[in-house]
Amino acid sequence: MFLDHLRPGQGGIVQGIEADASLKLHLMELGFVAGSPIVFLMSTPFGDPNVYALRGTSIALRKSEAKCIRVRI
Amino acid sequence: MHPRPDLNPTPGTDRDPISAAPRESKSSPAAGAETEEPLIALVGSANSGKTTLFNLLTGSHYTTVNYPGATVEFALGQGKGLGFKCRIMDTPGLTSLIPASLDEKVTVDALFTRNKPDLIVAVVDANQLSRHLYLVKQLQDLGFNLIIALTMSDLLQRSGRAVDAKKLSEMMERPVLPLDPRRKEKLPQIGSLLQQTCREGRTDAGGSQPDETAYRAFASAMNDERVMQYYAALDLVERLVAKDAGDGKASGKSIPRREEQESVAGMPGTADTDRPVSGGPERGDPENIRHKESGTGEIRSGGIKETSGGSGEVLPGGEIRKDDIRRPLHGAPAPQAVADGKVVFAGSARARSDAADRILLHPVWGLGIFLLAMFAIFTSIFWLATPFMDGIDTGFGWAIEGIKRLLPDSWAADLFADGAIGGIGTVVVFLPQILILFFTMGYLEDSGYLARGAALVDKPLSKIGLNGKSFVPLLSGYACAIPAMLAARTIPNRYERNLTIFIIPLMSCSARLPVYTLLLAFITPRGKPWIGGLALTGLYLSGLVLGAAVSTIISKFIRNKEPSGFILELPALRRPMLRVVAISTYHKAQQYLRKAGLTIVAISAGLWVLTHTPIQTHAPGSAPTAAGEYVAVSHSYAAQLGHVLEPVTRPMGLDWRGGVAMICGFAAREVFVSAMALMYRIDEGGNGSDGVADRLLARMSEVRFEDTGARIFTVSTVLGVILFFMIALQCLSTVAVAKVESGGWRLAAAQLVLFTGAAYVLAVALVQGLRAAGVP
């Protein structure tokens, strides 16, 4: 499943990224590498982007980007 | 080719010709000239505590071209209290040496070309070690001489965790400088560490500096696998340097120790990637591999030193279930248990920040707070500033009168008093407003709220062709369009960036404030400043609405062909450090005064001469001795210019004098006010003890057209002028910056022609329409 399917408060582990090369590299450099625990913290008032907890920080991602990140619950 | 500088270089070994070259050949860092003072660069992610450290090292004395929300320019200062002379440079936030946006590219370029540092202080937030050490690893692999500054340990301690700095230093093989804001820092000690490390990094000491060639090789070798390897190695570091905070109350659980190998094998991170940590990253350049093993039996893994049998402190031992996620080391908003989609947050360093975020990003509260915050900023600019502005204005009124009384009655005294001092007065008078704007924006930025704001407005902005990351540039546009356009570099998508740059001039920058303030004071009733405040807020909103409309129209006709996205780190919310905000506000205000002040004094003085010359009855070269002998404005050079312009300005309701003032506004908008004062000769009438603005207002209500005798400044005229100032692109520096930032004349020329043209047409239409409707 993908990151955009998590419910608020739900956590998972990053499995990989399915996106074009530059977005993939960028996400990985930010810490979205396989094996990283991630939690869907909360959404924003307009429903997009969502905020995720990763490696000690919070990162806001649009759903279109969350859709590229494969996670395991 | 570029061996990492070794702490204990063995003479004669592994020296390549470049590093053995004489020091003089080294490209000189920043600020020109060959100088022996080493350059120390602070590098790290945004919000890693760089600026705090910078203020500490420089004693808060620095020069900068920064504006709130736009740390795109470098701040440079002299090291202070460090025991040796050095220059210290603060750089914009950086996540990786592979830039994801233009602002990151600028920083990366600077490190390799313009401002090669002798030493990099890599600032690392202890709460997100792996993410921040990622950049450190990259810098290290490229061969930079660096030390690691560890910040935010106090925050980490709230969750009962700590970082073992000694161990971190051992593993990264670089000195680690733990910074604790609560302790009085020992500057001389920090200084001697910096000095020593600087010296060791010098070329003549065996160090070398990576150049563009090395960078290109590094960048082209960067790929997914490399990132995985970096993180595998850094995850290990993160785990091994973690310890319970020494205050006893820690996590309340004893953390069982395990054998290193066991814990590595047990970690999902390494298991999933199926990659042994010891097979760490290889350098793109084979020669770049660590050239010397120290021979203590340590295993290298991607430059990370693993001490065999190290004290691996891992997650609460027996509790590991198959589906348990790894307890992130210091793991901020990390779940302690994940079961049935329920996450328990407790004892996490970011628990408080997350709790606040639940309100700040709440569908109802979040939106309400956002609107309230914006409203508060813009109304405070008017209400809070008014008493200060009145005081300053009156003060300058007295100063001008005083100077005229003290100095002998001559043209020079008048030029000095009315031209120079009067000109300065019109700048200084709105300093309170500038300070409030800069301070509130700096405050929001330092608190971490601006990032929330950007995330909040991303969706609506994406509907009109912009991006959540347009938020900070647009907000900065209310201070000044130039730093705002530089701030737009943070928008990765070129289309969205250019569209943002395009509409930035429509935001009411601070240079328009004095114009609005003057004109609104003229048409709103006295004694009721709240009406003026509301009107000003309305003007600010109108700029935003207009910008949104323009953006919507453009995005309907020109499509964004590149993929759009929004990835933004939300730093932990914190109480802003007032000192830091105050210092940066001071610097910005100082810079503003210097820049605007020079232009305004020059133009005011020039205009004074134009309005007082040619000299009527005197021989060329000699000057009149009394004010009464000046040429009438109507016969001055300025008048000759004004009469040429009158056909253009008359439809807007302005006579030639107002027209000249308007033209002066194209040098800098705020000059309009001082130009008005000179053109309408406020020195000729009114009560001398009144402030400049009061006298100007009085004068405005009495001046009449020379031909028809009708009053010039009526409600319709004033509204027309306001509308013109709202839309017209009158700032030539903005045009120049727009050209550079958009990468061509097209956008800049379109802005200049479209905005100024539309401003004129609409202003004329408004004035004529109002008059036709019977408005005076």
Features:
heterodimer; A: 73 residues; alpha+beta; 2 helices; 5 strands; globular; B: 776 residues; alpha/beta; seven-stranded mixed beta sheet; 51% helix; 7% strand; disordered N terminus
Description:
The complex is a heterodimer of chains A (73) and B (776). Chain A contains two helices and five strands, in the order E-H-E-E-E-H-E. By secondary structure, chain A is of the alpha+beta class. In chain A, strands 4-3-2-1-5 form a five-stranded antiparallel β-sheet. In chain A, strand 3 and strand 4 form a beta hairpin. Chain A is globular, with a radius of gyration of 11 Å. The mean pLDDT of chain A is 93. Chain B is an alpha/beta fold and 776 residues long. Helices cover 51% and strands 7% of the residues of chain B. Chain B has 30 helices and 16 strands. A seven-stranded mixed β-sheet of chain B has the order 2-3-4-1-5-6-8, sandwiched between helices. A two-stranded antiparallel ribbon of chain B has the order 7-9. A two-stranded antiparallel sheet of chain B has the order 10-13. In chain B, helix 21 packs across helix 22. Chain B is elongated. The N terminus of chain B is likely disordered. At the A-B interface, strand 1, helix 1, strand 2 and strand 4 of A face helix 4, helix 9, helix 11, strand 15 and helix 12 of B.
